[in-house]
Specification:
By secondary structure, this protein is of the alpha/beta class. It has two domains: 59 residues, Orthogonal Bundle (DNA polymerase, domain 1); 280 residues, TIM Barrel, CATH 3.20.20.70. The protein is 36% helix and 21% strand. The chain is built from twelve helices and 14 strands. α4 runs parallel beside α5 and α6 runs parallel beside α9. The longest helix has 15 residues. The model has no long low-confidence stretch (mean pLDDT 94). It is an enzyme of class 2 (transferase). Its EC number is 2.1.1.192. Belongs to the radical SAM superfamily. RlmN family. Pfam families: Radical_SAM (PF04055), RlmN_N (PF21016).
């Protein structure tokens, strides 16, 4: 199978050009065709020689994704189900905000982390995505926005999979979409979410990127976190918090802690007090998430009044916290749900 052209960073494409007897600057022209003009074939790259276009076509594929279905929510959220070259399916979401359009991308086919509240882990991990398969999600979303005259201004790596378990592809993806000759999405407009793979939190901190980091915490103590997230057995909460402190100290950037509220599990006033104590003094923000119901899981949504009570306790303790705005609640919005439905049908 040919490699995906979208997997190459600009320096890598420049190197390919030189190895194939072409001038390095041709790589910038190809990037312009791919990410600015957003063409669908090498034949359309008319300022390249026919010989170069044939070389590109012989070496690379542009067919990373095939759209299976597209759901559009009443709030404007768009959820795509894509088929990959090997028949596996992944999800990508366009979310509308007052500050722009955010694209939620997937990094793996399935997930092996095993969070007990998440539909993405149903069926386990199948494989990692190539960098180009992640890039193509943003590019396809941008093409869907083009007729509206809008752009993908933000990216959240919060779809199916654990990004840090596909680390090299993740970094290539970040560099490609950030490149000024590429999609030119600012690093500070990109957020990567991890379940807490401690060694890679240290490694990501040392990259010294301006990309935002979010930690899926979901619990105020180790006992509850282990029940919700088995990864806590491998990377205990105290180790995770030390890694978070290292990230903040090394980068000077604020961390986001994602905290899904599950009725009767982690949403009581005492849990809010405990969470505030855990995060006291950290440069961080807590994103409270009213959970989407997943039929295959047994968790229930926290009552609206209890969500606001939890928020007020955190804020009273000096913790910066907000409630995440819901997107696409009428279109199987929970991550992995659309893929799970497709798997049942096929």
């Amino acid at each position: 199978m040919k490699s995906f052209i979208y997997s190459l960073t600009l320096p890598e494409l420049q190197e390919w050009m030189q190895q194939n007897g072409e001038k390095a600057f041709r790589a910038g022209q190809v990037f312009d065709w791919l990410y600015v003009k957003r063409v669908g074939s090498f034949a359309e790259m008319t300022n390249l020689s026919k010989a170069l276009r044939e070389k590109l076509d012989a070496s690379f594929s542009m067919d990373a994704l095939r759209e299976i279905t597209r759901q559009v929510s009443q709030d404007g959220t768009v959820k795509f189900l894509f088929s990959l070259h090997d028949g596996h399916a992944i999800e990508t979401v366009i979310m509308r905000h007052n500050y722009g359009n955010s694209i939620c991308v997937t990094t793996q086919v399935g997930c092996r982390i095993g969070c007990t509240f998440c539909a993405s882990t149903l069926g386990g991990l199948k494989r990692n995505l190539e960098a180009g398969e992640i890039v193509a999600q943003v590019l396809t979303a941008q093409k869907a926005l083009d007729p509206e005259g809008q752009r993908a201004s933000h990216v959240v790596v919060m779809g199916i999979g654990e990004p840090f378990e596909n680390y090299d592809a993740l970094l290539s993806f970040l560099r490609i979409i950030n490149d000024k000759k590429g999609l030119n999405i600012g690093q500070r407009h990109i957020t990567v979410s991890t379940s807490g793979i401690v060694p890679y939190i240290y490694r990501f901190a040392d990259e010294k990127m301006q990309v935002n980091l979010a930690i899926s915490l979901h619990a105020p103590n180790a006992e509850i976190r282990t029940r919700l997230m088995p990864v806590n057995r491998r990377y205990p909460m105290d180790e995770l918090m030390r890694a978070c402190e290292y990230y903040i100290k090394t980068t000077g950037r604020r961390l986001t802690f994602e905290y899904g509220l599950f009725g009767g599990v982690n949403d009581q006033p005492g849990h809010a007090e405990e969470l505030a104590e855990l995060l006291d003094g950290m440069l961080c923000h807590v994103n409270l998430i009213p959970v989407n119901y997943v039929p295959e899981r047994n968790y229930v949504r926290t009552a609206r009044n209890d969500i606001f009570k939890f928020l007020r306790i955190l804020q009273a303790k000096g913790i910066n916290a907000t409630i995440r705005r819901e997107h696409g609640s009428d279109i199987a919005a929970a991550c992995g749900q659309l893929r799970a439905q497709h798997a049942k049908q096929t």
